[in-house]
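fyi for ur records
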Amino acid sequence: MIQPKFRSVLITIAAITPFLPGFAQAQNITDEDIRPAWGEYQPNPNRSNITRDMDIFLSNLDGVDADVDYPGWFWDYFLQYYVPPADGYINSIDFHFSDVPNIPGKTMLIWIYEANYPWNEINTEAIADRQGDAWLGYYDELSGFEVVGSNWIYGGINDTEGAIADKVYDPLGGQVWPETGSASLSVPPNVDDEGWLSLDLLDSMGTVYSFERNVPFIVITTYIHVEDSYGPNWRSAFYAAQKHVEPQPTMKFHGTNSEPDGWTGNNDWGWYILSYVWDWDVNVTLTGDRGPVMSNWTELGVALDQGSRTITVDIFDDNPAGGTFGIESASLMYAIDGSDYTIVALTENDTAWTANIPGHSGEHIDYYLTATDVNGLTTTTPTIGYDIFFPSAPTLVVFNGGSTTGYPYEYYFGVSDFLAQHVADFPHDVWSEKIYPELATAYSTIYEFFISNSGGQSHDNRDVIHGWIAEGDKNYFFAGDDFYKGTVWDEVYFEAGDFEYDVFGVYHIYNNISDSRTSTTDIEAVADNVLTGGLYTAHNAVGDTLVYDPVSEIDGYNGLDGFDPINLADVNMTIHNGLTAIGMNREVDGDKIVFLGFDPLSINARPYTWWGFDVLSPQTQSLVWFGVLSEIVKIEERSNFPSEFKLAQNYPNPFNPSTIIEYDLPEECDVLLIIYDMNGRLVRTLVSRSQSPGNYQVQWNGTDQRGLKVGSGMYFTQIKADDQSQVIKMLYLK
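which gave:
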């Protein structure tokens, strides 16, 4: 085999537009975009089947197990960004598939590009996955909507704080490998859905790609088939993991084949910045020196005191190009409450180095580690931050991966009847990060909510909660669909020793038995249950039908999980036919457990009543069952309908990012609720339908009809109910 020649500088090939055909039109796909991986994650056993000398592989996973599969269809594009630690060249690229169609004729096209990405003015971690802000844009060419071209269509990122007006946020620089066209990799049918495929650059195109130290490059790929197809049978996916870093290294280009109306149905095709990292290994040979290799550093979580904390890290220096190697110095850098960084020397003990963050009086600590080799090359870890958290109550409310303020987070314990009272005032702390053992131990009651519109569940707390409950006399409430990432998409069985079996009392789960994006689901409370019996009696007394409707109530896509309980008597909520359990509560050895396979705030009714924000909601009733509150008093009887037509002032006002609009209807009427700007132009229609008498509440998240964020300024809400009309002013601040 002829070995390639290498220079000490980056071999940059003149940018030539690759073969990227236009997208074919098709209808909307209906299955979920992201889901837990089908099989058990297995790391790359060989890191490549290429036999040439290889020193390292480049990966953005950094030891995180990829337990999610992230899919694409015909002419969707995938992009991942890499920063090499030294001069060298790429031998091969390994792709880890979690879902492969059992059909012939499937091919991947692969390129390597220079990187225009990242951009200093944009915090990509803050906007990743947010359908407006994370949207970069696309090229509108005669051939269709493309990843390259000349007519850039700006995405929602241009409205993000810090964005440069009219900047072309195209992540791709020039194509650098192959020189023309694209490399291709056949994807054979695979009934087992998973496995590794490797592209040998030299065998594929006769050349490799050479890079320079710290000069980033981008690997991009797309799927093609023998026919233009889409849908579940043509779905392909890579193993992936959700990871929040800066910059976020991964993007996907949503094309018109899988998204004919755009990702959100608002003509928003193109690149999106994601928080998911694909399991792609770039196998390289290094021809130059690299800085010290740092691994296994301590990532401190929440601290419950301000005492000293120890940091450890493994450091070694290898110099792959040959010559002198060794560590010259290594340091811990820490800052208290945003002050200047203090330097503490790391002390060596074999490959492990240690240092202490001393006791202090601050409430937030940032720290990172640096190491410099004898040749003057320095490696720095990411900055890690943690808070000093002082428990103030016996109850902790956790919004997994979400916020702790604003809508809907402050509404989960409303004890209102027709919204007469806002949030239940009971002693509790709030939290949105990972639950650590030392944090859990400080509480006797923990509520954990997984809310899909928060950007996805970020933290798997099963092991911590399992150990915490084993301490005895605990109350635990969990609510949300796909209750922990990593479970099988369709269904899975549990046994003694599993968290789901021991804690929830579940031996079989059916994930996402309804698609909340496209329809609501009729549900029912269980009569005589300590948490839901009151809801059953009250809603039947007024003759409505309970409905699960997360799109209307939390503006999210929180699905619905069903399950088989160990004890049928524990069930408190079911699908309307009563045959499938979706909620339960049980008491075991002094511990009280509530598990809801859905978001309880999203319970409303037909005709409309917002039961999820009611004194009878299961999460509010659990406060009494757990003993957090001795009782909850209703404010007024449900039979007292409003006496007059009224549009209340929105709250909060001014607002960012969302506000609540309330109105009263004394009788059934046709309702039109709209937002318009200072120039009288329609911005958003919030309600346009007939409604029964009652009190209503609608959230506006500052977006227009296309789902794009509006600019700061004054806006007006107008309600028309038959022949009556009222208007209020609202101030939106970005």
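The mean pLDDT is 82. thats all i got for now
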